[in-house]
Design goal:
Blueprint (H helix, E strand, L loop, with lengths): L5 H4 L4 H5 L6 H13 L5 E5 L3 H10 L3 E7 L5 E7 L6 H8 L4
Antiparallel strand pairs: 1-3, 2-3
């Protein structure tokens, strides 16, 4: 943590900066519940620190329409995505009612 720039070290929580052994632990927790949280055709947006890794993670998890968006300078800034596709009707109903 001490090696980080003060702008990050002073304003971001340690959990948000570390993210487990591979840096994706917090995204795994979010991805596990994201289908239930997103409305049909809903879009999720995630701040991307290492945009390629986040985009690859969500693609492997089965999400669709994954795009990396740039900031006003054109630098990668966030990843957008839509909910997983090809779910059965029963699976969709279970997600709506929070059933496993």
């Amino acid at each position: 943590m001490r090696l980080l720039d003060p702008e990050m070290r002073e304003y971001e929580t340690e959990e948000s900066l570390i993210g487990g052994n591979d840096g994706l632990e917090s995204l795994r927790a979010i991805a596990a519940d994201l289908d239930r949280l997103l409305k049909p055709n809903g879009i999720a947006l995630f701040r991307a620190h290492t945009w390629k890794r986040e985009a690859t993670f969500f693609k492997k998890e089965g999400f669709s329409d994954i795009e990396v968006k740039g900031n006003y300078r054109g630098n990668p800034w966030c990843v957008t995505l839509r909910r997983r596709q090809n779910k059965s009707l029963l699976s969709t109903i279970k997600n709506i009612f929070g059933l496993k």
